[in-house]
Each structure stands twice: as C-alpha cells, then as structure tokens.
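Below: protein 1.
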Amino acid sequence: MYIAIAIIIFGFLVTVHELGHFIAAKSLGVRVNEFAVGMGPVILKKQGKVTKYTLRLLPLGGFCAMEGEDQASDDPGSFIDKPVWRKLIILLAGSLMNFIAGFVIIAILFSGMKVFTTTTIAGFEPNFGNTEDKYLKEGDRFYSINGERIYLSDDISTFLSRGNGSTADIVVIRDGVKVRLDNFPIPLREYEMDGRKVMRYGFSIKSEKATFASKLQYSWYNTVSFVRLVRLGISDLINGKAGVKDLSGPVGIVGIINEVGTSTEDKSIAISNIFYIFAFIAINLAIMNMLPLPALDGGRIFFMFITLIIEKISRRKVDPKYEGYIHFAGFVLLIGLMVFVMFNDIVKLVK
C-alpha cells in the first residue's frame, strides 16, 4: 500500500511541476503541443483545440511539450521567440508550483496541531550550569547557531550537531535584545531521565498553544527549513562531507517510505509521516530544478541569459539548436546519474 502511495505521489509532484509550465505557457501565448501525465505508451488521449492531452502508462513523470522549445519555429506561439520575461516566468512556474505544493502539504498536516514546540528555553538540567548573564538563561529564544537562523526547535539540535561538537557561536533574543554567546561550551552530555541515561544538550524547550496564525507561521518556517536542508545537502556534496553514494532516487525513497509506513503501528501517523517526507521532496524538486545545469529549468534560464549577452555583443542571432545540443548532452548525463543512483538504491535495499 505504501509503495503504491509513494508512486502516486511521485507522479503527482511531477504533474504539478509540468502543470506550472503548462498554465504559464498558455497564459503567456505559447503553444503547447502536448501535456502528458506519466511516461511511456499512451493509454488515453484527447485532442483539444490546440493541445493534445495524454495519460501514459508509467506513473513516474510527465511533460509539457511547447512549440519551439529547443529549435526554431515559424509558429507565432513559439516559445523561443517570446520575450525574455515571458520565457523566464514559464521556466520558473514549474518549481514555483512544487514549492507551493510543499507548503500546502505542510499546512494541511499542521492544521490539526494542538501545540507547537518553540525555540525558547524552558529550563536546564540540574548540573547544566552556565546560567549566569553571560551564559544561557531561561526564556532565551534561539536566534542563530553558527550563523544559521533558527526557525524550529529541530534546527537547534541540527546546527549544534553540525558544529565542532564542543562549542558553538550562539545568538539569543533576551528581553527583546540580541545577545551573542561566542564559543559557548555546549557539548552533548549524558543525563538521566526517567531512570534512563540519554545524550542531551542539557536544556528543555517551551511549547505554545497552536493558533491559526501560528499554524501558518510554522508551516512557512518548515518550508524555509526544508529549503535550507537542500542547500546544506548540496554544500555537503561539494565540500566532500557527502558523496554520490549518499544520494537516493525514487527507488530509495520508495523503500524509505515503505519502511516508515510499515514500522508505524498507527496508520494515520504513518500517512502523516509519509506526506511530511513528500513535502520535503516537493521543496527539494523546486530547488534542485533551479540549479544552473543543462537539461534543468535552471540551466535553461542560465543559457537564456548567456545567449542574450552573446547576441547583444555579437549583434547576431544564436541558433537555438546549439543550446539544444547542450541540454541533450546534459540530459544524457542526468540519465546516467539516475541509473547509477537507482543501482545504488537497489544494492542498499538488498543489503
């Protein structure tokens, strides 16, 4: 059941992305030859006045085929001949729809919340110490840790754990004023709770009653936090903290979702957890698709501006087929990466 849910939602996220391109293209006078849900052989099709709408066999994927997307065309509705600002809106629309979808999923999940955990310190363990004015105090609200803004209670442990393990540069809001605590000693330590020894940072966090305004606020904070997690993931790949083998594709994510679902006894909680994961995936798709890489929308935007600069300098029209070649090469490399990640995911599942 959970595998089926995962596949359906994957298809939904891709369809939402392509729907963003479709709506923007139609609104800005670009001819859309085909709007497809799914990939592979056509199951159902309907010819509209201009656009052919198709439902295809494989639920993972979809596309919005615009006239003159990668080559010159004499059609007045050609994408390539539209002003830069129109093309920019069309290319941004897909990621924007994924971003909105992620936020809406989180907002729906949070609509039933009764309380939220804040970022304000409620108290300390008896042997925590360091509660004088130059240290942390009850009522302090975490503002940043090691230069990263703190929006959610989870952000506190996330950025303390990403530090050096012993100290952190902390900024708190105390009585409405920012207080800096540079090189503050705050390692994970062993504390006793309910007769058990646990590793903690030695402080507890306040909770607050959920209101309509706070539900929207925390939904937005979660969305912003997801954006940052994607940025940190990319940063870790670049600086070597993570490798290509740490990446997961659809197969790995479906495996994780199935494990989350089957390991949770309460089915409603399992479904909520799965949709929370997909909210993150929606935000992930929105950000990753804006990277300036060939075959991605971000790459198309990047080359659009490069082409504009070349044409301004040379006063000659650049043949769009050259950009098409670059995107095709990028697409081939992207498919190769996807195959590698899928193989790696299958190996992980087997192990």
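Below: protein 2.
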Amino acid sequence: MTSGVALVAAASGIGVIVNAALAMAASPLAGSGARTLLLGGISSLLVGGVVWWLTWKPLEKSAAATSGSAGGSGNWQNARRIYLIVVFGLSAVVAVVTLLVIGYRMFEYFLGDVSGGSVVDRIRAPLGLLVATGLVAGYHFAVWRHERAVTTAAQPARKRTVGHVVLVTGADPAPLHRVIEDATGASVTVWRRADVGPGPGSGADAGRLARELAGKLEGVTGRQVLVTVGPDGRIDVIPLRG
C-alpha cells in the first residue's frame, strides 16, 4: 500500500512536470504560475520517488524474485503478482481514458468554434497524465513479464514420452483428459463409445478412474497410445505401432 501511494505521488509529479514544461514551451511569456506548477511537480516526484524506491526496493525485489522463484514464499509471490497486475491494469485504463480525452480536445480544437489558445494548451494536462501512466504501466508490465519468465524457466521440464493419446470412453472424459495431459503432456483426442452410456466416471468413480489411469500411464512410451475405458470401468492403455 505504501508503494502504491508513493507511486501515485511520483507519477503525478511526472505528469505535472510534463504539463508545466509544455506550458512554458508553448508560451515563452508564461508567468510564475507555470514555474510554480513545475516546482510542485518536481517536489512531488522527488518525495514520491524516494518513498517508492525505499519501500518497493526494485533491485532487491528483482533479485529475490529471481533467486526465490522456486522456493520462495508462495503468499509473498502471489501478493507481488497481484500488485503488479493491479497497477498495470489501472494504469492501462487511465491511459486509454486519457487518450480519449486528448482525441476529443483535438477534434474540438480543429473542428469546433474555439477561439484563443493553442492545441498544446488544450492537451498538455491529459498528455502529462498519459506520459506518467504509460511509464508506470510499462515498468510494471516489464517486471511482471520478467518474473513470469523466470518462474517458468525455474520449473522442471516435463519429459514428454507420448506423442498423442486417443481416449475411448462413454463417461465424462474431462477428468481423464486432464490426467493424461498432466502425466504425459501429449495431445488428446476423445472418442465416445456408442455401446455404453454415461456410467462410471462421475463423482467418486471419476476420482478412482483418474487415479488408476495415472498409475497405468507411468512408464508408457510411444508415438501414439490408445486408452480405453470399458463399461465396467476397466482401463486399458495400449501403445500403438506406426
């Protein structure tokens, strides 16, 4: 929460700085108002940026996420992941709304009866907000993508011993489908039996069949494997030639 509040202050400072800089560039005779706005933005950026850096500790957190991806605290990792997604999502929404405001003001300036001022004066405030939210969204998305890649790389690679599985069953194939994918990593084609209706494969039977199938798939190799579930719940795992 402290990181989020400090991030809002720092991002607001960036937006105000861009706003004041555009005001001074568009009007060289800008009075003390633009300078005061600029100083306020710099102050907000410095205070918010320092608090965010001390709280978020980007260098330490990045190293911790990299080294602790396999054995770190699950709650800490989940909270961090949620924080990154929430900040990126909110920043993206604000950026989209700001783009709409900029587009509306530009159309209003060029197509409407607007007298006085320039197009820069009309869009400098939302443009500053757009720059700030773009930086925030880009940073947090990059961190989230990097940590996701590190976590995926740290997971042990699953050895694929089966190329394709044909599952023949008259019951609900979903539980068995998941077991086959988890145990072999192979693609699965389901053929429904016409000689039996829904029988074994629901409730407790589904769990029993899934456990039995997982045991039968251990050590099975082959380019194609046929898995049949009989009306009585019997499971046969048959590697195929060719």
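The chain has two domains: 2-154, 162-240.
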